[in-house]
Amino acid sequence: MRLRSMSRGLGFSLLVLMITAWPQASAWAAVPEKTLCISPGEPNAYSRSNLIFDTAGDLYGTTGGFNGAGDPASIPNGTVFEVLRKPGGGWTCKQIYAFQGGTDDGSVPIAGLTIDAAGNLYGTTDFGGTANCGVVFELSPEPGGTWNETILYDFIADSCGSASNLVFDNQGNLYGTTIGGGPGGDGTVFELSPNQDGTWREQLLYGFSGYDGNVPAAGITFDSAGNIFGTTEAGGLYDYGTVFELAPSPSGWSETTLHSFQNGTDGAAPIGGVTFDAEGNLFGTTNAGGNPPEGCCGTVFELTPNSDGTWAETIIYHFPRTGGEPRASVVFDAAGNLCGTTWAGHGAVFRLTLMPNGEWRPTAVYGFTGGRDGGNPYASVTLDAANHLYGTTYDGGNGYGVVFEIP
User: Fold this and answer.
1) Which of 28, 65, 126, 271 could form a disulfide linkage to 108, CB 3.0–4.6 angstroms apart?
2) Taking the CB of residue 102, how many other CB atoms lie within 10 A of it?
C-alpha cells in the first residue's frame, strides 16, 4: 500500500505565532500585501508551491495540491503557471501547462519548480505515470509563448510519489526525494543524470527503512563538500521525524541521522527542508510538538555541528498554542533574518530577527484573513533583490488560493 504523508490528513487549529511577543492582530494590518493572482492555475487548484524567478524577474509555480478529501482522480491534475511583470507595472498571470494525468503524463504537482540557465523548468508530480507514482518533467519554452513538456523519468516500483523540489548539482544532475518506495518502502533520495541521447537515468542514492526516517517530503540541500541534507516527516528513533545527512563514498552514499525528533520541546513532524547559514548551521521548522504540555504547535530549530561529528539542536522559537504549524522551510533575507510561513488559522508570514543577546525575536510581517488576500500558505516565501516576499496560499481568494507579494 502506498504510504501517504501525515500532513495530508491533519486537521488544523487557530491563528498565528510567537512566544516572546507574537504580534497582536492589529499589528498585522499595518503591513501591506498585494494579491498578484487569484486561483493562478485553475479552479480547485490548491497550490502548495513556492515560487521561483527567471532572469527577467517573472515568477513560476505549480497548482494541484491535494485537498485532503476524496479520490485523487477526482481533483484536477494540476498546472504550471507564470506571473509576468507588466512593462508599466503590475502583473499578469498565465497558465503555461495543464497536466493530463494517466499513464502518459503526471498529475498533482505538489512541489515548486527548478529553472536552468536556458529557462527550462523542472519539477515532480505526486501521481500519474505508468505506475501512478508520479513523474519528473521538464517544460521548455517555445516560440510564440507555448511550452513543451518532456517526461524525464517515470517513477515505478523503486520509488513512488514525489512532493519534492528538484536541485541541480554542478554537473547538471537533478536530485530529489520520494515519500514512498525504496527497499524499505519508506521513501528515497534519488539522482537523475542526463544521457547523451537526451534521456535521463535514475539512481537511488538511499532508501529509508523507518528507524532512520520515513516520508522524506521536502527536497534536499547540499553543503559545499557535496553532502546532502534533508528531513523526514516521520520515522527515526521516536517516529516523529528526523534530520539526515547523506555523504558520498566510493561504495555509495552513507546515511547519518543528525537528529530524531521526540515530540517534546524539540518538536515533531518536520515537513519542510533545511537551510544553511554562512557558518554551516542548519535551520528548519517542525509542524508539531514544541510547547509542553499541549505538544503543539511547531518550532523553528537550529542544528550546530560539534567537533566530534554530532550535531546539537537548539530550539530558537516555539510557536504558541494560538498559532503556528509551519509546513515549509525558512529562508534568510538580506539582513540575516529568518522568514517563513505558518498554516494555523488563516496563516501568516513571519520573520525572526537575531538580537544582540542571542534571542530570536518575531517581528510582524503579515497575517492572512482568508479573503481576497489568501489564506493558509503551505510553502515558504521567495525574496527578490529588494527584499520583497513572494509566495502562494492554499486557500483564500476565490477559495483556491492566491499568489501574493509583501513589499
Assistant:
1) 126
2) 15
Q: What is the pLDDT of residues 206-225, one digit of tens each?
A: 999 999 999 999 999 999 99
Q: Which residues are CB-neighbours of 155 under 8 A, at least 6 positions away?
A: 129, 131, 133, 134, 135, 136, 161, 162, 178, 181
- What H or E segment, with its residue span, contains residue 28? helix 25-28
Question: What count of other Cβ atoms lies within 10 Å of the Cβ of residue 70?
Answer: 9
Q: Which of 359, 352, 358, 298 is nearest to 325 (CA)?
A: 298
Distance CA 342, CA 17 (A): 8
Sheet strands side by side (includes 242-249): 221-222, 228-232, 242-249, 252-260
Beta bridge partners of 389: 383, 406
Residues 267, 300 contacting (CB under 8 angstroms): no
Residue 234: DSSP 8-state: B
Residue reference for cell 492566491: 402
Cα end-to-end distance, the chain, whole Å: 45
CA 93, distance to chain mean position in Å, is 22
Contact of 200 with 216, CB cutoff 8 Å: no
pLDDT tens sequence across 165-189: 999 999 999 999 999 999 889 999 9
The pLDDT, as a whole number, for residue 44 is 54
On the question of pLDDT at 306 being above 70, the answer is yes
Across 336-349, average pLDDT: 94
The three grid cell numbers given for residue 286, joined into one nine-digit string:
517542525
pTM above 0.85, yes or no: yes
Distances (CA, A) of 317 to 92, 161, 266, 367: 37, 31, 10, 18
- What count of Cα atoms within 13 Å lies in the side-chain half-sphere of residue 299? 24
Q: How far is CA 372 from CA 20, 162, 341, 393, in A?
A: 30, 30, 18, 11
Q: Which amino acid is at 391?
A: G
